[in-house]
Design a protein that fits this description.
The complex is a heterodimer of chains A (281) and B (306). Chain A is an all-alpha fold. Chain A folds into 2 domains: 2-64; 70-279, MetI-like fold, CATH 1.10.3720. Chain A has helices spanning 2-37, 42-45, 61-69, 72-103, 109-120, 124-137, 145-148, 155-165, 170-178, 183-194, 196-212, 215-220, 229-240, 245-279. In chain A, helix 3 (61-69) packs across helix 14, helix 5 packs across helix 8 (155-165) and helix 13 runs antiparallel to helix 14. The longest helix of chain A has 36 residues, at 2-37. Chain A is flat, with a radius of gyration of 25 Å. Chain B is mainly α. The radius of gyration of chain B is 27 Å and the shape is flat. The two termini of chain B are 46 Å apart. The chains are: A mainly alpha (281), B mainly alpha (306).
Chain lengths: 281, 306
């Protein structure tokens, strides 16, 4: 009886770990297939049965070809600059507006806040065309500014920050006021340090959303040197990729590697940030 | 005398702090709210305005046409195909992301902490990979002759499938891609939901003689309801807006087999430059999302009582 129970338990654990390994295989397969293909010569990509590990690896030749044909370093810089600009701007405006909505009473507050929540429900595709026309009218079309300007104030960010600041003790803020701090000083030196986790969550969320965004850059960027990484990769592949999968996969590796490396180093704060950002938002 | 003076001073002090406070409130909020009005509120009304006009991007004349765009879209069979595919995608995507995310959350939390810290980031990795990269990886995975997926499926006696080149399999293929990408997120959200359930509740159930299955169905699952509602809303809304994967993997084909609403908006607006028509399709999409968003507002109100 006791042996039976122990055996049952071991069996159950084996099933659990087997299942976890199976899922891990499914999750990792596309990455491995991408990585393997990126080191293959072209004739090895059109062979059956396919090989996972290249039999005749070409070293970094595919990567060199991609880098010489496409300005990937430039795309990387464009993505980095725009994502950092939008993230910084959205963090600042969201924290400030969120704080004011959370901790002050003034006429019109509830109406304005309702307006913010209401726009959160409108999908981006609805405002896509007006914002596109505005970008053209403002001379932002086909510049990196077009990727930055519309994202500097985020309804979702304001909402998230307001939720996280609502429960800050008002006594603390009043104490700082009595000590003679200015309102801006209280915001910068008392409030912001207290909501670091929420700021980190919003920062990670905003950065990832911008880094990976595709539809908007596809519409608003025309010249090749101004493309972001996803846009550059997409147009590179749809250009001549279908027949050169080893090059497309090398370009794909170049695109996802930076974020995956950052994720591998800071995965705990990534996952915590995204959890906080979603459940609280 | 002294008291009156002190009172006078404190009134003056209060009114200056009050003025300072108002200055801070409106000095900070005005630029942010103006920006918000220009880039978030105004475009909504502009979209409505544009949708009531024939609005060719390059044409000079932009006549008012009333509801013509909305009506002609409804009479276009392609719109209905896109709508059907979009609903199919969103429903399947939502269902699979929720079920698999919950199952994976339960599985991973039952593992040894060391194993947990290996599997959880691994399952989450697709979520931090850009959708463009994922779409390309899967296009190559699905390649009918040389792709590794057909090769592997042969071992369990399945296939070969044409995947993206078959009008029957193209939607499932894109759904699998989307689910693969998002399931790690769902797992993480459910994990957070699970850790919020007090253990003594589960223990109480076990003490009362409930099997672990009963504890799950009658204690854990009902307590996860807010998490499930959240996942339902976000994955439905996300699913209804599918675009990147479709654009890259199938372009809406073969034929019209994988056309979706956002692709329709994109094509009308930025291939045929009919901004009015594109906007009217966007409002139909909005209508769909509004139903889901209504549920979300109710949920947010309950959770955060604003």
């Amino acid at each position: 009886m006791v042996i039976g129970r122990a055996l049952f338990r071991v069996l159950l654990a084996a099933i659990r770990y087997g299942l976890a390994l199976l899922i891990a295989f499914v999750m990792i397969l596309p990455f491995l297939w991408m990585l393997g293909t990126s080191f293959k010569p072209i004739d090895e990509t059109v062979r059956f049965p396919p090989t996972f590990i290249p039999e005749h690896p070409v070293g970094l030749a595919n990567y060199v070809t991609v880098m010489t044909r496409v300005p990937f370093a430039r795309y990387f810089a464009n993505s980095t600059v725009t994502a950092i600009a939008v993230t910084t701007g959205a963090l600042l405006t969201s924290a400030l507006a969120g704080y004011i909505f959370a901790k002050f009473t003034f006429t019109g507050r509830d109406l304005l806040f309702f307006l913010i929540v209401a726009t959160m429900m409108v999908p981006f595709q609805v405002v896509l065309i007006p914002i596109f026309l505005m970008a053209r009218a403002l001379g932002l079309y086909n510049t990196l500014w077009a990727l930055i300007v519309p994202g500097l104030v985020s309804a979702w960010g304001i909402f998230l920050m307001r939720q996280n600041m609502k429960h800050l003790p008002s006594e603390l803020l009043d104490a700082a006021r009595i000590d003679g701090s200015s309102e801006m000083g209280i915001f910068l030196f008392v409030v912001l340090p207290l909501v670091k986790p929420a700021l980190a969550a919003l920062g990670i969320f905003a950065f990832m959303a911008n880094w990976n965004s595709f539809l908007w850059p596809l519409i608003v960027i025309e010249d090749a040197p101004k493309r972001t990484l996803p846009l550059g990769l997409a147009l590179f592949s749809s250009g001549f990729g279908i027949t050169r999968w080893n090059l497309v996969m090398a370009a794909t590796v170049l695109t996802c590697l930076p974020v995956l490396v950052v994720f591998a180093i800071a995965q705990r704060s990534f996952i915590e940030g995204i959890t906080l950002g979603s459940v609280k938002g | 005398m002294g008291i009156a003076r002190a009172h006078q001073m404190s009134v003056r002090f209060l009114s200056t702090t009050r003025a300072k406070r108002l200055l801070f409130i409106w000095g900070s909020l005005t630029p942010i709210m103006l920006y918000f009005l220009i880039f978030s509120v105004l475009p909504i009304f502009a979209a409505l305005y544009i949708s009531l006009h024939k609005w060719p991007l390059l044409g000079r004349a932009k006549p008012f046409v009333g509801l013509d765009n909305y009506i002609s879209v409804i009479n276009d069979p392609r719109f209905w195909i896109s709508l059907k595919n979009t609903l199919y995608y969103a429903a399947a995507y939502m269902f699979l992301v929720i079920i698999l995310g919950l199952a994976m959350a339960l599985l991973v939390s039952s593992l040894h902490p060391t194993a947990r810290s290996v599997f959880r980031p691994l399952f989450f990795a697709p979520q931090v990979t850009s959708a463009v990269a994922v779409a390309l990886m899967f296009s190559w995975l699905y390649q009918p002759q040389w792709g590794v997926l057909n090769y592997l499926l042969r071992f369990i006696g399945l296939g070969p499938f044409m995947w993206l080149q078959s009008s029957k399999q193209v939607m499932p293929a894109i759904i699998i891609t989307g689910v693969w990408e998002a399931v790690g997120y769902s797992m993480v959200i459910y994990t957070a939901g699970l850790t919020n359930i007090p253990t003594d509740l589960k223990e109480a159930g076990a003490v009362d003689g409930a099997t672990s299955g009963q504890v799950f169905w009658h204690i854990v699952l009902p307590l996860l309801q807010p998490t499930t509602l959240f996942m339902f809303v976000t994955s439905m809304i996300g699913g209804l807006q599918v675009f990147t994967e479709v654009w890259l993997m199938s372009g809406g084909g073969p034929g019209t087999a994988s056309r979706v609403l956002v692709l329709e908006i994109y094509d009308q607006g930025f291939r045929y430059f009919e901004m009015g028509r594109a906007s009217s399709i966007a409002f139909y999409l909005f209508l769909l999302i509004a139903v889901i968003a209504y549920l979300q507002i109710r949920y947010l109100r309950e959770q955060f009582e604003f």
